[in-house]
Amino acid sequence: MAGESGERSHIVTRYLITGGAGFIGVNAAAHFVRRGAQVTVLDNLSRRGTPENLEWLCRQHPAVRAMTADIRRDNAVLAAEAARADVILHLAAQVAVTSSVTDPRTDFEINALGAFNVLEAARRALRPPIVLFSSTNKVYGGMEDVRVVEDGNRYRYEGLPHGAGEDRLLDFHSPYGCSKGAADQYVRDYARIYGLRTVVLRQSCIYGPHQFGVEDQGWIAWFVLRALLGEPVTVYGDGKQVRDVLYVDDLIAAFDAAIERIDTVSGRVYNIGGGPANTLSLLELLALIKKMSGVELAHSFGDWRPGDQRVYISDIRRAQQELGWTPKMPPEQGIARMRDWMAANRETILRVYRQ
User: Fold this and answer.
1) Mean pLDDT across 213-229
2) Residue 62, Cβ neighbours under 10 Å: how many?
3) Residue 176 is a catalytic residue
């Protein structure tokens, strides 16, 4: 926002959240509204559970402005909304590797073309807004050069005690990796070439309330939900594969930190995950679910899926140093909170899964 002197102030009052009916989007929107901001959420409501999320958001926070639009084609809408915003939080995406393999064109149009359209809308605004982009750890590919060793019921990196850093070679595996990776680099380059204030957040295994997990995306939510319903899961591989996991409130804290420090972090890329202190293997998640519920989640084992890494753990030291950010929620507590939300909203969740 411009002050009388023509200099931009740091007061952010207007947010545009693309993909705002997704689970991250509704949590972020509720957070910003509670702080007194004006929030517009834009979503095409194509993903299962988004209409229910949006209904909840607008019921709980009537001040939210909701728009049904598609980032692939509604450029006039994007332009108008970018002109109104101080910050664009670009979350809209196709999020499953498996879906990208079966339908790479749609994946490209949503993830790569959609991000380009958002950037162009921001660039052409009279007062260009800040753009935060929700990227992914998949931009690092299979990391075949890093030795992985077996350690009890999990795998671990042999030589990366802090995890994978932002300086790793980009190596896009799968159409999903390519489309998100292309968008990641466009967002970064628009800061260099056009002076747009952008930040790329390479996220790792975000979980929390309002997440309607499915088998090929949102594995923590999928396992917890199946346990609540008393239904089995398939573990692909041996279950020792490890990821760093991050509760959604901690992700939103990273959004806040990037916005507050935008003058110094514009154009930067950050790994945003749980880091080495917040990791789980699939077998450990099964054990945690049994501990919470007292009942073992029935499971069987299937073949490894192509491109499934034994380990991915984010090195989050750059975000800690430059954003002053660090995860606060331990996995056991965060997963318990998500389980409580699922239990309280069981009927809604069942209705969504029966669609």
Assistant:
1) 86
2) 8
3) yes
